[in-house]
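Hi everyone,

Forwarding the result from last night's run.
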Amino acid sequence: MTTTKANLQGIAALLMWSTLVAMIRSICEAFGVAAGTAILFSVSAVVLCLRQGFPKILTMHPAYIWGCGLAFVLYEILMSQAVGYAVDRRQTLEVGMINYLWPCAIVVLAVWINNERLRWWAWPGIALSLTGIFLCIASSGDIDLTGFIRNIAAYPLPYAMAFAAAVLWGVYCNLSRKYGAGRNAIPFFFIIIALALWVRFFTTGSTIINPGWKSWAELAYVAFIFAISYALWENGIQKGNMILLAIISYFTPVFSMLFLCLWLKTTPEPGFWFGVAFVVAGSLVCWTASRYAN
């Protein structure tokens, strides 16, 4: 597989993730959070196994299987718990914004784990992109900087979980790049996540809400896209330009907000476009910092 093709697969994964936010929320509302996430990962695991078979994990590097596996499982658990601990929609958006630090985590950890080289101006570029992400999300009117800081100080647990999850995703991507050797254990990781979610479902006394056939159809569609997107991302970070994909990842919340506006048939506020300009500027700065590092 060429680097260009791997990069395109990584970008395709980012676009898929951007469209899934609203749909995953509706699945959780239809099935219940515990049951919805457990069923989603279970069906996705089946899709992945049918698509590429069960991975031969005994032939893979232990650091890839256990290091990436642990980071993947902890990431999903921490993010689901962070969203679960959020008390309202505003806090859910704030927790999600903290999680969007993961592209930054990929870049920072790539310097340490994979010996990637960056020019000094990568860091102002990252700051510009993060500012743009904040402006994009704040344009919804549900987030303001003063309230954001006040909420973190008053109830830090979900924010700490979201931050830890972002760091773990950076660890996962870099370990996969370093030890994956072109192998793909995503089906195995999905099976572990599904089992952990079912354990949580049965030990917490949760129940499955009785949804209609449309909810089942939506779940099947989301599970398929969910599975394929993770498989594509794994190919992208292992065989493509991981730094480039991390830089493009800053556009994930932008794409997500645009899709939500289309989904809900609303018009983005002017602040959203200011945020987009910051993300574009920051991403271009980061790109030049990586392009001219050698």
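The two ends are 24 Å apart (CA to CA).

Cheers,
N.
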